[in-house]
Amino acid sequence: MVKPIGIAGAGAWGTALANAAAIAGNDVILWMRSPEQAEDLARTRTNERFLPGVRLQDRITPTADRNQLAACRAVLLVTPAQTTREMTAALAPILPNETPLVLCAKGIERSTGSFLCDVVEEVRPGAPVAVLSGPSFAHDVARGLPTAVTLACRDAALAEDLATALSGPTLRVYHRTDVRGVEIGGAAKNVLAIACGAVVGRGLGESAKAALIARGFAELLRFARAHGAKAETLMGLSGLGDLVLTCSSAQSRNFSFGLHLGQGLSVEAASGGKLVEGAATASALVALAKAKHIDMPIAEAVEQILSGAWTLDQAVDALMNRPIKSEH
User: Which DSSP letter does residue 55 get?
Assistant: First the structure.
């Protein structure tokens, strides 16, 4: 008997991935903190708070008992990036050491500047860790619209096994061994998406937006190479693909946040009380770049705006008045 896939976190993305895994032919354990939410989801089969109108697949079992995750062949951790350490510590005593934990959040731990896979390996030494990333909106995946993402694990055979298990008629999962490249692409693009949103919100034009995406991608490549990632990984779904999607649609929370900043809202008002992963990651990304003397002017401009050191107009002036140099 094939073990079920576990999903820890029943927000929009967790619920969407649960549906996709079920459609791919897996039994799924969907864990959430609230017993009331689990009971309601089991009864109504719809997550009206996060994915209204999308029916939960029959093969999904909602639960608030995290011990049920111990029987899973793999557990997808679909909680905010800044809770990765806390959630991994909570799951570590429950999961067998051979059970892979698949990270589905995109970010860098702000308090330590650590990549999320490093955080998991610190908390669960010796246990397999993977990362799932790529151009994907929860509502598209949940509705069964065609989507392709990348799953990376240092163990090539395990990466292929997990990708095969999660792939179905509407979700195609590619696999790689470049964990660092896939997680950097997911984390850095959120910061750049804030900048793109601000450009659109300020009415700076499509030409400025295109230039920002191109130069932002150059920053992302520099940062990734300096941290041992492969350039070809960033040219794929988890790098360029995710960057283009996130920088082009108000469905992206990061883009929408930047859009509101560009329209003159404060940082607090622009978030609308929602978690913005790029805002939480910006300072850690810039600090890591400076530590390796990596030039990331767009990311630095975002960080300066978020800290209140610069206005958006000052950031634009700073970027446009940088010394002229060869494009490379």
Answer: B
* Residue 327 neighbours by CB distance under 10 Å: 6
* 205/320 Cα distance (integer angstroms): 14
- Domain boundaries for CATH 3.40.50.720 within the chain: 5-177
Averages of pLDDT over runs of 10 residues in the chain (328 residues) are 93 97 97 96 94 95 98 98 98 98 97 98 98 97 95 98 97 98 97 97 96 96 97 96 94 96 96 94 97 97 97 95 88
Q: Identify the active-site residue in 3, 189, 292, 325.
A: 189
Question: What SS3 state is found at 75?
Answer: strand
CB count in 10 Å sphere of residue 121: 19
Annotated catalytic, 230?
Answer: no
Within the chain, all domains assigned CATH 1.10.1040.10 are found at 186-320
Fold of 5-177: Rossmann fold (3.40.50)
- How many angstroms separate the CA atoms of 74 and 17, rounded? 13
DSSP 237-255: IIIIIHHHHHTT-TTSHHH
Instruction: State the Cα–Cα distance between residues 97 and 100, nearest whole angstrom.
Output: 8
Strand pairing of 147-153 and 5-8?
A: unpaired
- Alpha-carbon Rg for the chain in angstroms: 19
Token readout for 327 is: 């494009």
Q: Which fold has domain 186-320?
A: N-(1-d-carboxylethyl)-l-norvaline Dehydrogenase; domain 2 (1.10.1040)
The pTM of the whole model exceeds 0.85: yes
Element (DSSP H or E) covering residue 300: helix 297-307
Spatial separation of the C-alpha atoms in residues 286 and 31, rounded to whole Å: 34
241: CB partners within 8 A, 6+ apart: 134, 135, 148
